[in-house]
Amino acid sequence: MIAPILEEIAAEYADRLTVAKINGDDHTEIVTRYGIMGFPTMQLFRDGEVVHRIVGARSKRRLLAELDGHF
C-alpha cells in the first residue's frame, strides 16, 4: 500500500534522500535491532542514526509533511 508512495518520493527527492525497503519477515535481526513493533514502519536515518520514525501508512502529502525539515 505504501510502496508506490515511497517510490514516488524516492524519484522526486533522489538528490536529497535514499529510500530503502526491507521485508521484516526476512530480516528479523533488523526488526529486533530497531524495536519495530508494527508495519509499515519508516525510519529516517542521518549519519547512521535514526532521527525520525513513522509507524503506519500515510498519504504522500502527510508523509512529506512529517518529513519536512529532516532532509
UniProtKB/TrEMBL annotation:
It holds the Pfam family Thioredoxin. PANTHER family: GEO12009P1. It comes from the Bacteria. The keyword Ribosomal protein does not apply. This is Thioredoxin domain-containing protein. The keyword Methyltransferase does not apply. Belongs to the thioredoxin family. PROSITE patterns: THIOREDOXIN_2. CDD domains: TRX_family.
